[in-house]
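Handoff note, outgoing to incoming analyst
You'll be picking up this chain. Sequence as last confirmed:
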Amino acid sequence: MPREVEHEITVDAAAEDIYRLIAEVENWPRIFPPTVHVEQVERGEHSERIRIWATANGEAKNWTSRRDLDPEGLRITFRQEVSAPPVATMGGTWIIEPLGGNSSRVRLLHDYRAVDDDPESLEWIDRAVDRNSRSELAALKANVELATGAAELTLSFEDSVRVEGAAKDVYAFIDEADQWKSRLPHVAEVDLREDEPGLQVLRMDTLTKDGSSHTTESVRVCFPHHRIVYKQTTLPALMKLHTGYWRLTDNGDGSTTATSQHTVIVNTENIARILGPDAGVAEARTYLRNALGANSRATLDHAKRYAERGGR
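Most recent structure output, in case you need it:
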């Protein structure tokens, strides 16, 4: 018999707005802490197949799901087509119920089984579903209710360089992050795990221009030889969210355009402690743009030199 569980939360927002946020999967890495990346595989009028990369109990996992969308009934049902062990089957439903005024109840239902109905595996899934469901619902509530002020706190930008070399060589430099301590001056320590091909957990100590150091951990999803998408799961104190990607575009003339993109949300609680009592959101945005941009441009410049020497 499948295990059936339900989680719910009350959100001060219109049900239609909440439904739209859940329905549009491109929002998920920004909204839901466990979600690293989502790609739409197929799309029909009211159904779709999506591939999801996310963390569960601290482990990086990926799976493919089919979703049926009911915008009139404010329901989204989902079923994993290809589950990641120890999950044998997993499905459920998002249900958004208007409560009157500007308030709604969001219910998240799951049903699942473990591989071979193993009791220890079932307990692992219980913990993962409970932790992720609570995290996702709390994050959904926070994001919906704070949407009006989120624009000022959100910063997105990118930097690009032209490389007179092959995209595969630029990709190799960025993919081989376990070599970054010897290849990049702003990386002090690095640990890279890749238990499944193309799904990496990267932990590193990074130096900024002012000499300070911070430890981050990211889950990276790799698409040879054109893109690496990531989400930081351990963040510096000045950020509530940090997602991004490395994109490599073959220009058709033997050259490559290499781009680094960042999206961050400022953590206002730590601005004064890090930047001083007179600093505000504007100063935090400038600091993050400069610090992240400097490290990204340094990585791009080193990748450029590596690729222009033919991957040496």
